[in-house]
Design a protein that fits this description.
about 200 residues, 14 strands, globular, four-stranded antiparallel beta sheet
């Protein structure tokens, strides 16, 4: 059996590894200068479905990114409805919801939402029955806004996300979005261990 080199094995795993639930920011996110991603249009990309557990019936208004902009000193927002609706599902029932705006920072602690959290506000409540709720993969493009000036902690969000209601109270479990590189490294370690045992 032909052996793969370590470099080839690593490259194959990095190519195949899924960017599970990663939230990627592209485009003009800092004062209209297009210095993130090389384009002028701010875009939020959810690369893969994110699934939450919902303990009881509720109305979700916010997708919360924990500590999304930890160094920012004040709220800025893209108060804009993208052309693309947010694709969601509750217990297998699919629907589309309009997005109200993207906020990089909350101006005060409100129930379960902290001052460093990023917020994706929905224009229409996500009506939830107890069970599972899914935010589906998608790309959401906003109009440029020079007042949107987030102090982002990297271009790819890796951390905790959850659903909240209009009073900023948590409605779901907290889901940790892993880094793409971490997934790849775990896969590499497991495969290397398997190859070692075969020898």
């Amino acid at each position: 059996m032909k052996k793969l080199s370590k470099a080839a094995l690593t490259a194959a795993l990095l190519t195949a590894a899924p960017s599970y639930g990663a939230i990627v920011l592209k485009g003009d996110f800092v004062n209209g200068t297009a210095n993130i991603g090389g384009t002028t249009t701010p875009t939020l990309v959810i690369t893969q479905d994110i699934v939450f557990n919902i303990p009881s019936n509720a109305f979700a208004s916010i997708l919360v990114f924990r500590n999304w902009a930890p160094t920012d000193g004040g709220i800025t927002q893209l108060f804009d409805t993208p052309a693309q609706n947010l694709a969601v599902s509750n217990n297998g029932n699919d629907s589309l919801l309009a997005i109200n705006g993207l906020y990089d920072h909350n101006n005060s602690l409100q129930n379960d939402v902290g001052i460093n959290d990023g917020l994706l506000y929905l224009n229409t409540n996500f009506v939830l029955a107890a069970g599972t709720a899914t935010i589906k993969a998608g790309s959401y493009t906003f109009n440029s806004n020079t007042f949107f000036d987030p102090a982002l902690n990297g271009l790819t969000f890796n951390g905790q996300v959850f659903l909240a209601d209009s009073a900023s109270s948590i409605l779901s479990n907290i889901v940790t979005v892993p880094e793409v590189s971490s997934v790849a490294l775990l896969g590499l370690g497991a495969l290397a261990l398997g190859l070692k045992r075969r020898r």
